[in-house]
# Entry
Amino acid sequence: MATNTYVPHAAGYVDNEGVKIVSSRFQYEDSYTLERSLSTGGYEGMKKTLRMQPAEVAAVVKDAVLLGRGGAGFPAGVKWGFMPPVWPRYLVVNGDESEPGTYKDRLLMERDPHQLIEGCIIACFALGLNTCFLYVRGEMPVAQERIAEALNDAYAAGLVGKNIDGTDVSIDIVLHWGAGAYIVGEETALIESLEGNRGMPRLKPPFFPAAKGLYMKPTIVNNVETLANLPWIITNGAANFKEYGSEKSPGTRLLAISGHVKRPGVYEVEQGRVSFRELFYGHNFCGGIKDDNDLKMFIPGGGSAPWFFEEQLDLLLEAGDVGPAGSMLGSGAIVVMDHTTDAVKACLRVVRFFARESCGKCTPCREGTSWEEKILQRILDGHGRPEDIDLLLEVGANISPSPYPVAAAPESGLEAVPFPPKQTTICPLGPSSVAPITSAIRRFRPEFEAKIAAVSPVGAGA
# Structure
């Protein structure tokens, strides 16, 4: 891997001078303009695409093994192949980034919207469709405004719309602003929202989007960063893309690092070639734990991921390493917590988020997440009961059944965390609330017991 030098940049991005596939224009203050895009190779991948056959474009993406960057990590080219020969068909871009700790897609939309638009055109051409819906989270006004401006400029330049770049290809991109619901990050809930309904997940089966998606037509839902990779892949080829990263996880990915590190921010790193230890302590990355404190725990893939600890620091940033160890890279959000962190408070903060973002469609999630929040709050308020710890685990097991009986679950490590989560709900939101509880109790049970044993509310909340 290339030696990197830390260079800070605006809007949370950190230029560590490694290979740049999706963040190459972030160094420019006007990176979001059409002029900057065109002067740095923008839309060249799209123009090359329009001279190819759709099947050829799809084959290049499949050969590149472009894994989805939204959380599941499913190969984009394989996903595209699930669409039946039914028209009309649609592409939906999931820009509803809202996993706790995640903000890399927001930067992509704010700093380089033309790269995303180009990726949308490439995907639409490969899929043989002429309409794309770009769904952007409600709390991202800068991203919304810059994408709207970029679309206007691209339409005016003939790069989107009818007869793109003088060809007989016509593709429209519709920008849709969300209302700020976390659950709409789930692809079927996003489709419901696009249709004007309340954002609630659909049952799968039968509502797999590739078969029955938007308006009950075949639909591919791709993440912002996934599509942002397409211009580079088409321009440079699948073989060059696979020169970076590892064999199982080619290319780079953006990682949003927050919490107790000296240099938080978004980093573009090669997959499978950097460990958590190098990312947290490397002088070219985060530069160490804040105030030179000791690491206590970290969340490797957004708020829904089971926690990791010091013994997992040497795992590589690759699903093949992280998954078998009991967690996930998920949405590319890593939250670092040092030894001063109150594990019970940290657990409550994450659980409260999921409790308040539940859509309420499934009883175990609607009721269970609220119970989890109330029990944790009771413990922190100094009114906890000794049985509350096992009660938390029992409630969690009813949302996401554990492979271990509550009383027999191991006292340390992540083996007691049901991962990948089993669930009694339509979508994984409910099980997401169980991950921090199980992680915290198995590792830091004495902290829970100490708060329960405290003699006053003041002491309990310290």
